[in-house]
Amino acid sequence: MYSHGSESLINQAREIQEPELQRFHSRLVKLLQGKELGHEAVDSLQRLHIILSATKYTRTLPPELQGSLQSLLASPAEQFQVLSSAVLRETLPLSGQEGNYTQENFIQLNNHAAALVLSQAGSRADLSSLCAQLLRSLESRQSDGPAASLTHTLPILNTVLTHSPDCLTEDHVTLMSKKLVDWLRYASITQGGGAPSGGFFTGTRSRQPVPIAELDGTVSGDFFTVLCVGQSFTEDQWMNVYSFSMLRHWLITYRSVSNGNTTADTANRLQLSLSLSLSHSFSNDDRSEVDGSVVSMVSATSSSSRLLPPKERLREKAFQYCQRLIEQSDRKAHKKTDTDLQKACLVEAVCILDSVCGEDAALVFRAFPCIKALFGRLSSDLSFARVLLPIAQFYLNHGEMAAVDCESVWNLVFGRFPAELFDHQFLAHEFLRFIRLNLESLQLRVPQYSRSFPNLLKFLAWNSPAVVDDFVDLLPSLVTAGTAVELLHTLLDLPCLSATLVLQVRSTCLPISEPGGRGLLSLDAFRSQSFRGLFLFLLRGEAGSGDTIDRLSTLHEMLTETADWPRVVQCAQTVPVLLHIFFNTVIAIADQKLLAHLVQVMLERSSLLLNIPKYNKEIHRVFSRHLLLLCKLHPSLVVDQSHELLEFAGATANVYSKEEIYTHVVWVLGEYLSGSCDSRCSVMLITSCFETLEAVLFEITSSAPPPGADCPVPRVVTSLMSALAKLASRSHDLIPRVSLFLSKLRTVTRGGPVAWCSDEEDLVAIVTRGEELWSLLKAPGVAQSVLTPPQPVTTPQWHGDTNVAMPLQLRALTNLTHSQ
């Protein structure tokens, strides 16, 4: 919604007439041709932008005005650069001049002009042409004019390659690789501007070059990198920084460019790799052939590297640059910002090493000593966790080829990272992204991964809304036959884990409460040695120490006051979603024995949950749905777990507290406890089940509910009656007992309201259902076919059966309803 003043301006801009617009254009052209541009020019440009952007139709400006606006892009005042770029983006370029700006004025390219150039590239062909022009502009030397535009050329070139990497040709790759080598490896090693030598005459001639310095203040003895410091930088030093910032993206981009000399280049690279590895040096005597400088010494590395093709030479120089950065990162920086810069450069350097080693396997053996030493130096300091993740990526990609032991890396990544850094949100994002990108490799090569779910779930327990999408994707990979039961318990205890993590953080910053003082009882319990084992089990680092603990009810009592903490409530809301994913996954990998165990866990844990509002009902709803699915796919589970199911169904208290899952357990018993589903189902088992359900039904329909409990829901009562009728239809000796109960039920309800059902409509529905079942049981043969129909009736395939007339009728109906 716009304000009244804004709407008025927009309406005026839309309603402006063409003659008035032409007069405004003429005034603006004269204004822009003046020597000094003031507030009037700013106001006029802003008004022009409103006029152009207020309508959905794109306008064309007069050539003279468009030329003035393009010239204004090079104005020293950034305000005019912004306004002219915004206005030109709202217009169409003049016919036949779509690429004129990029061809003629690259020397004036800046950020705002770059945005205009990209916005006017209307097709892939335009992007390809723009890419070629940008690359040609990089060939200009400082003697050809100011080189300031190069600092803007690289970012826009990087953007073009992001959108359209296929616009590169082999010649483009060669040129860009040569330029990056020159900027990365051969930037000047003196500070920009120089320092006065002293005395009365301190002109330009008396200024002496000052060498660049390292972050610890010492004079740099090697080539310039992004971690070198000085009072000011020269142009080629700025290009060094820009080149490093886009190096990794460039290395990834040029892989897609086809190379007709792949075989020759590969052979040449392999021939030179041994000499490079033996004569590798960080010496600065290797100068670029581009600047034509003469050096006094040439190292063996330099001689060998000159024999390489441009792409391979860029990889070699990138390798040296990254190793130099790793060496510089060991220096003690004087400022915190420089320390952060060291960490950021280490992340980029290791990622670039990973990329070049992925292209050239010969570099793996040269890089691993450096990476291994870096890991040994940083592994004890978790403040470098963001650096250690790329190192882990390097080990994952190349550790098998180099035959190195990666166990210490994975123990750190899947051990200490989640255990100690679960509350670092940015690290959690990067860590889970690392797992998602390498999921298949981690499952195959890292045995610690599948056992680390108690640790990994700490990220979810601490910050559920931010990472739940990651765990929706990751959870199936954590479900294995060996860990499924423990994982189910862990998911159900996620709210407890969330509360425990909060208590762990608070215990380090809150004082111990004094005797008689008011404090958090849960925090005191967390600090108590008596309950320490319960919390340590929740905080365990890997699976295998046991599926669950014996004193869960005690733990839930201690965490009662945490049930309304926002972090715990948010965590509880994610559990039902993850449980659906868990059961959908486990059905595909579990055998009959494991599924039977899971059914037992569901029945046990339905009463052992942290008391969070709505949480228990949601979990019961999930259990109910998947209990039906499990029993439908494997009906023999009902016989396998008949003892546990009957014990659950025989507890009258479950009718009032767990009506959702209780109803489904009763339905499963009545539906699948049959000889047609499992030959082990005997008459004795059917009778035992009948007696159990009969006792419960008689008890809840003959007395009022317990104090504090509501009346049983009608669905529970009707499910019990239906289950009894189904069981009786399979053992006809039980029919008289069911019929007697149903007739008594009808007689009792005729006398008026009953204590166990307060709603008259519900009572009518129950009685109606009872009369229907009573009528069915009068004919046992019909009752069995209706209540327990055979397989062809429950899953008909008449549409595909050639022995019946249904296919012919369907075809005839199709022909009639579809027009010819």
TrEMBL record:
Span of domain AP-5 complex subunit zeta-1 ARM repeats: 341-458
Q: Which domain of life is it from?
A: Eukaryota
> For this UniProt entry, what's an example GO CC term?
AP-5 adaptor complex
Q: Which Pfam families match?
A: SPG48, TPR_AP5Z1, TPR_AP5Z1_C
Please report the stretch or stretches of sequence annotated as the AP-5 complex subunit zeta-1 N-terminal TPR domain. Answer: 1-300
Entries under InterPro entries matching the protein: AP5Z1 (IPR028222), AP5Z1_ARM (IPR055450), TPR_AP5Z1_C (IPR056856), TPR_AP5Z1_N (IPR056857)
* Residue ranges of domain AP-5 complex subunit zeta-1 C-terminal TPR in the record: 470-816
Descriptive protein name: Adaptor related protein complex 5 subunit zeta 1
**Can you name the source organism?**
Gasterosteus aculeatus aculeatus (three-spined stickleback)
